[in-house]
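sanity check this:
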Amino acid sequence: MALSGLDIYKLLAKTNCKECGFATCLAFAMQIAKKALSIDKCPYLGAEAKAALETASLPPIRPVVIGMENNKLEVGNETVMFRHEEKFRNPCGLGFIIDDNLGDSQIKQSLEKINVLKFERVGQLLNVNLVAVKQNGDGKRFVEVVRQVAENTKLGLVLMSEDSAALKEALAISRERRPLIYGADSENLTNLAQLAKEFQVPLVARAKDLDGLSVLTQELSKQGLADLVLDTGTKKIKDKLWDLTQIRRLALKKSIRSLGYPCLVIVETEDSYAEALEAGTYILKYASIVLVRGFQNWQALSLLTLRQNIYTDPQKPLQIEPKVYKIGAVDEKSPLLVTTNFSLTYYTVLGEVEASKVPSYIMSVDTEGMSVLTAWAAEKFTPEKISDSLDKFAVKDLVAHKRLIIPGYVAVMSGDLEEQSGWQVRVGPKEAAGIPSFLKNLQ
């Protein structure tokens, strides 16, 4: 459990030496409690106190990294049960299972489809993360498929096999990619733990219940393995949700270190719609990695969009850079539309302007990431703000006219805006869907 400032203060030397940069030890302790400073800043911290503070400062859910460099996936390190309490930190990894009993041409086609599952939404690039190779035949075929997958995708790898000899060969091929081994249970723990230590890769611990998982992770920890991922096996959705929720709760609220690891879920269903719904449920609560078999565009886009929404910081709206954007082959006669710098608002307007085929300027006003009506109500989208933006971005140098278009929902400001800016104001449609016809009929 996290220590309070007073708890930390009791462990300090209480010399008020100021060598840490603070006037008192209490002030220093408060900064440590907020995780704003390292305990190393105190030169008089005893070994016992330092050990206690280091233990208390460990994350309740250990961060685990799969993959390397630009394609690494970091999971875990979560600190809250509910997003509104702070935020969810590391987005859930989405991966796809490829069985080794498929033909080489099928595997190649599958990888080609998986590799292009990238989407841009509200200015962010959404990517899938992992490819899991599952052994169904002999060890030789498994190793061949791992080699083929490693050569044809840059995504992170999951090696799903209980054959330690085949796993060792596969790890020798892919060790630089830092794959995830799936998975150790009470029967194969010794062999797989040895492989994870030898190749320094993370390992999935599998058990049917939380007590079994706790025993397993404690044993693996004794063997020097810290980068673990948990799995309670295939279950009904309600039972799986119960496991995921209890693991999260016990790690965060009860400081049960043996369950303080990210969780993996495998979705096993042949119905693509049911698969997407089940995978989305686990992204919401509380899987760190979800593996599926379906890799159709609509499935990936829906899951990645859900993930993006859940893992954005609720205290920091998605926003774009406030400036004037050129849409199409603009010239000095092109219309000028005004909107806020809330990403969803801007990209909605952008899509409709592009659909109109009318080259236009869009001026994004800094509203601290608020939408049009919210920013207007909060006095962040005002005639003064818009006038200042016109001057700041030197819009008069871009167009020969002095006409601007504002959203229909804030038509009430048009008179004041004309007085403040000296520009002629036209009220646009309330809904973005009306922009194409509005621009085409603009005189």
In short: The two ends are 66 Å apart (CA to CA). The longest strand covers residues 93-99. Residues 237-253 form the longest helix (17 residues). The CA atoms of residues 175 and 199 lie 6 Å apart.
